[in-house]
Amino acid sequence: MKKPAATPARTPMEPQTAAPVEEAPATTPARTLMEPQTAAPVEEAPATTPARTPTTKPQAGASVEAVFREEHGRLLAALVRRFGDLDLAEEVTADALEAALVHWPVDGVPARPGAWLMTTARRRAVDRLRRDQAYAARLALLHVEAERAAPAPPADAADADGLPDERLQLFFTCSHPALAAEDRGALMLRCLAGLSTPEVARAFLVPAPTMAKRIVRAKKKIREARVPFRVPDADELPERLPGVLQVIYSIFTEGYAASSGPHLQRLDLAEEAIRLARILRRLLPAEREVAGLLALLLLIHARRAARTGPEGELVLLEEQDRGRWDRSMIEEGLALVPVALAGPPGPYGVQAAIAALHDEAANVATTDWPQIVALYDVLLALAPSPVVELNRAAAVALRDGPEQGLALLDALAGEPRLREYAPYLTARADLLERLGRRAEAATAYREALRLVGNDPERAHLRRRLSALEPPDLA
Amino acid sequence: MKYMLMINSAATEPEPGAFPAEGCEVSDWMAYDKAVKEAGIFVAGNSLADLTTATTVRVGPGGERTVTDGPFAETREVLGGYYVIDVPDLDVALDWAARCPGARGGGSIVVRPVAEF
């Protein structure tokens, strides 16, 4: 057997229940760890990317749209830093974008759109502060205090526009552990991805007023408890960075396998997560786990088109048409794996290596299961969790046979976190079925059905169940 | 900005035979108190006497006063003391809270900004 991980090139693999099951949800911080994504009233959003410019003038065109998506977070971050107030920054960012929609189609897009937006936003902020003297005085006071206590750290390197990129501060603020876990992803989509509140609400499948309340609450906490806008010092980074990565990963996980609704995947959400990971990678190029996370997301998202059939039904990993996997995305992910593993590996780097092994294999039979099992062993040592144990057991089943896999799964039966975890029950059902233990398999499928989230997963389990129990028994 | 660190002790009564959690002895409290004061962030702070000495007063709509013994904690955590510190932001306050001996041994510190008017 090959040595565990370490060697990037041929290591690829992924966090999946390797099992038959279905491309199970990703590994470690899988769905269970996911933020309690509100089981709120399901009013499923279309899986398409939502329109992003609310006040669009048709002539404003695609270039404006592109500039906005890129500039929104950057502008907001710079303004938050300057004024120390997220609400004010958001208002004037919106003002500046609106002004651009009015002027650019007429005057053309300025040579330095970022600088134009920044100047406009700053002017609006000053106007607002003049209008509200009392507020301005209080804000100024806050600033003096903050500066006295801690002189502002040097800004991040400026880009071609001559504007510093301060989004990193915003990443750490949005994912601050003092905020409710369920609000962190929402804030990140709102502030860094530039989604409107109704768009964020659709993303998390909650009514817009509910989401508005949550965002207001989170911003109030940031303001009133004074959650700082700053990048943690190098010595704090190991403690704080995983929280940021976790938020992005959680957004992706919801996009990978929706926790409810008619669609298996929420491609818009998965893509936003990848966009956030790309930004973070640019801002923290030396952090291997950031490279690992981006690689992991790319290597998994590359399979999106093959994961569902023409009717939106679930297609298991073993049955996927690998010709429909996105080669360029796989190449991009593969190139990042060595970066992620160029030192002691972190959990995302190892998961990316696993995903890479899946993506490089021609089919399930020729997949390098021994290597995958070895990588899961590495992952277990780094970040032990019952979900990783589950994925490892599934990989063992493919390496050594269903009996061995089932023995490992049964040894996990006492894990409270797995008892209500559909992928565990599904994996068990599948192995029982393969071993011809049909009655037990049917029981496990029924239990899984009770817990599974979206319609395609449910339909898949029903099919498996009905294949085991011919209807004539009914 | 001022923050109150509310120190919640783990239990009203230690388990029989239990020792104070490591890093939570009297000398640790004295060292922490000294550190807070030397850092120049100390605004106020006190350790509260045992919960059994507490008395609760309520005044009803007609102005009638009710005095009762207690409160008695329904949870295993009780407020055992507090600090008010003046630091730049929540991260610094959390760092100080994490250094407090009361955060160890099953205790916890609740950090709340002091409202400014």
From TrEMBL, chain A:
Tell me the Gene3D superfamilies matching this sequence: 1.10.1740.10, Winged helix-like DNA-binding domain superfamily/Winged helix DNA-binding domain
SUPFAM superfamilies, alphabetically?
Sigma2 domain of RNA polymerase sigma factors (SSF88946), Sigma3 and sigma4 domains of RNA polymerase sigma factors (SSF88659), TPR-like (SSF48452)
Point to the regions of Low complexity compositional bias.
14-60
Q: Where is this region: Disordered?
A: 1-61
Which InterPro entries does the UniProt record give? DUF6596 (IPR046531), RNA_pol_sigma70_r2 (IPR007627), RNA_pol_sigma70_r4_t2 (IPR013249), RNA_pol_sigma_r2 (IPR013325), RNA_pol_sigma_r3/r4-like (IPR013324), TPR-like_helical_dom_sf (IPR011990), WH-like_DNA-bd_sf (IPR036388)
Using the record's annotation, list all stretches that form the RNA polymerase sigma factor 70 region 4 type domain. 178-222
Sorted alphabetically, the keyword list is:
Sigma factor, Transcription, Transcription regulation
TM regions (residue ranges):
none
Span of domain DUF6596: 240-337
Q: Which residues form the signal peptide?
A: none
Q: Any idea where the RNA polymerase sigma-70 region domain is?
A: 69-133
Keyword Secreted, does the record have it? no
Does the keyword field hold Secreted? no
The record's family statement is: Belongs to the sigma-70 factor family. ECF subfamily.
What name does UniProt use for this protein? RNA polymerase sigma factor
From TrEMBL, chain B:
Q: InterPro entries from the entry?
A: Dimeric_a/b-barrel (IPR011008), YCII (IPR005545)
Superkingdom in the source lineage: Bacteria
Please state the span of the N-terminal signal peptide per the UniProt entry.
Answer: none
Looking at the record, the residues that make up the YCII-related domain are: 1-117
The record's listing under Pfam families reads:
YCII
Entry similarity comment:
Belongs to the YciI family.
**The protein, known as:** YciI family protein
- The scientific name of the source species is Actinomadura luzonensis
Lineage, highest ranks first? Bacteria, Bacillati, Actinomycetota, Actinomycetes, Streptosporangiales
